[in-house]
Amino acid sequence: MTAPFSHAMVLAAGLGLRMRPITLTIPKPLVPVAGRTMLDRALDALDAAGVSQIVVNCHWLGEKIRDHLAGRPKIVLSPEEELLETGGGVTRALPHLGDAAFFVVNADILWTEGAVPALERLRAAWDDSRMDALLLLHPTATAVGHDGPGDFFLEPDGRPRRRGDAARAPYLFTGVQLLHPRLFATAPSGRFSLNVLYDRALAQGRLAAIVHDGGWFHVGTPEALPAVEAKLPA
Predict the structure, then answer these.
(1) What CATH fold (topology level) applies to the domain 7-231?
(2) Which pLDDT score is estimated for 72?
(3) Which site among 118, 120, 127, 218 is 20 to 30 Å from 45 CA-CA?
(4) Considering just the CA atoms, what is the radius of gyration of the chain in Å?
(5) Angle at the Cα of 222 (from 221 to 223), degrees rounded to 5?
(6) Gene3D superfamilies per the record (predicted)?
(7) In degrees, to the nearest 5, what angle opens at C-alpha 230 toward C-alphas 120 and 31?
(8) In angstroms, rounded to a whole number, what is the distance separating the alpha carbons of residues 216 and 209?
(9) CA 90 to chain centre
(10) Could you tell me the residue ranges of all domains in the chain?
């Protein structure tokens, strides 16, 4: 039996189209923000949380991600010849992720910690008896570099609810989460979004969420880089 929370996956296979021309030669996770790559920031947070094995998928300029990770011994690389999106990427990596709940982190976002590190808060909030997925949300109004309408409402019992037809929702999904392998028991094959599985878990009452109490930053375009760097703490 795998120890809970000892495994993680970092999603680093995106094309980074909106970040061009920077991402013509650098995969988006390796774009430096305030002197450190987004991928390294995610890996550092997982290291601090005591994760013992981390899978990193890659596709666009994947050899650069491979070379960048050469000095990190606990990394398993999951190269994708064809882009599998978030759901397909995690499904392909499941043999390396154990049989207990594991972290999944997007490699193209940044966050700063609140009073307690975000991954520790997710770990403390996890209830294996009633959850298959636990999402970290952030207030839409205070997200830096994000101008979307938000993703979720949050019920008093911690259950998220999709924005649906509402013009705006108070919370967005941060790209940081805990997932259990059983979430993937009936997953589609090939390329698909994790949203497919979130909706199934939501319908079964097994999708939960907590709200991040630190900062959250999205670097979507080259023009957003200076604005995000200006707001990141020194």
Answers:
(1) Spore Coat Polysaccharide Biosynthesis Protein SpsA; Chain A (3.90.550)
(2) 86
(3) 127
(4) 17
(5) 90
(6) Spore Coat Polysaccharide Biosynthesis Protein SpsA, Chain A
(7) 70
(8) 16
(9) 11
(10) 7-231
